[in-house]
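Regression test case RT-17, inverse folding.

Input:
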């Protein structure tokens, strides 16, 4: 199958003197403006090494409770994506059930 089009997504990370992220911006090629974000979790599959590569970054100003929400929402969306990608609704349901548990625990500890 031939590639018919391409799209580029860019991330720009502004670091302080200790190489700690001060700001993170991202832009999709079809968007006019960059968006400022406080955190990002990016996972990609390296087919050569048969392994996951990750970029997890957050700014100094990212609040702990917001970080917990980010992880909770990521777990929920991973369950949805797993169902779409594999058709394994039972395994996806298990992941979403864990996300529900995680959310409840997060609320208790906030």
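Golden output:
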């Amino acid at each position: 199958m031939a590639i018919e089009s391409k799209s580029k997504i860019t991330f720009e990370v502004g670091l302080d003197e200790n190489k700690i992220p001060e700001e993170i911006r991202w832009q999709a090629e079809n968007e006019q403006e960059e968006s400022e974000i406080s955190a990002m979790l990016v996972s990609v599959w390296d087919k050569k090494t048969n392994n996951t590569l990750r970029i997890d970054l957050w700014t100094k100003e990212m609040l702990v409770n917001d970080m917990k929400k980010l992880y909770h929402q990521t777990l929920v969306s991973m369950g949805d994506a797993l169902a779409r990608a594999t058709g394994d609704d039972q395994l996806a349901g298990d992941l979403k059930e864990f996300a529900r548990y995680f959310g409840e625990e997060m609320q208790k500890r906030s």
